[in-house]
Amino acid sequence: MPLQELSLGVGLLRCLVGLVVITLLSLGLFPLTAAPAWALIHAHPDETTATGVVRSLESLRDLDYQSWQVVAYREGPPRPQAPITLRIVSYPGRVRLDHPTPLLVTGGRRLWELADTTLSSPKLAGDGRAAAAEFDLTPLLADLENNRPLRLELPGVFTELPVPPYVVKEWRSLPLWDGAEGRG
Q: What pTM was computed for the model?
């Protein structure tokens, strides 16, 4: 009889665990799907331009698991041909970025070489930490027809920094972004 009581106890325990799991699932406490990616585009006033800066800021990891801050930004009012700059920042003291070094971008079979514009930026040209680099993102955005994943390579610094499609979507929206779109 003790064996029957034990199997009855195990069955009851399984039933209780099943009820708890079903309850948690119905309350949404067990996320089974990824949370939606929200656009992280923000407008900021700037002392040098009357209309400010609109930027997309992301923290991405390369294949060596090093973190990089990736900022795409536009200065001035929204317009179709607005120049977009991509700034890549390492943590100061970890990596020194030499200039000029072009940024290589691949998307599928396509390859773009973006010019290093760091030395033309007054804020970055005099920065002794050499932890940031800027590139003209406009030619790449003009060529993209969809929000495809991209891979960045900065020779001598990192060989592959994956950029997910939702970040590419943010970058592509920067020229015309006026804040009315809100989140999403």
A: 0.71
